[in-house]
Each structure stands twice: as C-alpha cells, then as structure tokens.
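User: I'm writing a tutorial on reading structure tokens. Could you give me a worked example: one chain, its sequence, then its tokens, then a sentence or two explaining what the tokens reveal?
Assistant: Sure. Here is the example chain.
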Amino acid sequence: MLEALLNLDASLLLAIQDLRLDWLDPIVAFYTQLGNAGLLWIVLSLSVLCWRPTRRAGALALTAMVLGLLVTNVTIKPLVERTRPWLDLPILPLVVENDPHSFPSGHTCAAFAAGVAWAKTLPWRWGRIGAVLLAVLMGLSRLYVGVHYPTDVLAGALIGTLCAWVALKLDGYRTDRLKENRKGAK
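And here are its predicted structure tokens:
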C-alpha cells in the first residue's frame, strides 16, 4: 500500500514537471523563494500587525507559523527524513534547497498557517480570499520547481491549517479569559 502511494506521488510529480513552461519557470522560482524561512508570510504578518483593524490577523498568523515551524522543521522532518525528489527521480529542480528532507513542506505549512489565520480574521473579503490563494500557490510552486512530492505539500497544508486553528482557539481562550477578568473587576 505504501509503495503504491509513493509510486503515485512520484508519477504525479513527474506529470507536473512535464507542464513546465520556459516563460513561467523564473516567475514560479521567484515566488517559491519568497517563502524561504517564511519570509513572505512574516513580512506580511508584521505589516498587518502594524494596523489596529488587522493586528489580530498578524499576531495569529505569526503564532500559527511558529507552531508550524515546531511541528514541521523541528519535529517531523528530522524524524521522517524523506529525501528530496531530485535525489530519487530524473528531474532538475528550479531552485536550490539546502535541506535534504522534504516531508512535510515547510514553505506550504507556513503559507497555510498564515493564510488560514488571515482568512479567518482579516476584515476584507478580498484579503481573506487572497490569503488562501497565496497559500495554495505556494504549495503548487513547490511542486512546480521540483523540490517536494505532492504528499509533502498536502501534509504541509494540513499541518499549517491545523496550526492556524490552534492559534485561533488559543486566541479565543485568551479573549474569554480577558472578558471574565473584566467582569470580575467590576
């Protein structure tokens, strides 16, 4: 069963590699590298943190990303140690990845951690939709450039989403405690 899943994973990635277009390669490579070390998501989160109506969205996204970092890069990647696709398949990645481990995708995890937190907290509909779209594009970019298998990206998206959910629940608990303390102080 596991071998069949791994074969399907490899076949899907190879099919995606066949879709590459010369004019699109540098655009996707640039976008995927914006996610290095979560840089794009950190900068955007810090930006929205500076404006009062979106402060909560920035704080929750940063919290979710820290949780995602701990789960993916600190815990799961060193335990699983799945090698990058180009080490096992006949593909040439469009970007250099120094970390030899691919499962789960840290770029995708950070994107979904921030994107889902923003989707639940930003005051504008276009911002909520854009947040999810940017996250999905980051996951797809990791496949396109050839540095992750589809299951790596799927796992990163799931973990990032769960980390955003945990951050939102923690925020709800904190908000409830603040309300209780204010009522008790009266």
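What the tokens reveal: Residues 33 and 39 are 9 Å apart (CA to CA). The mean pLDDT is 91.
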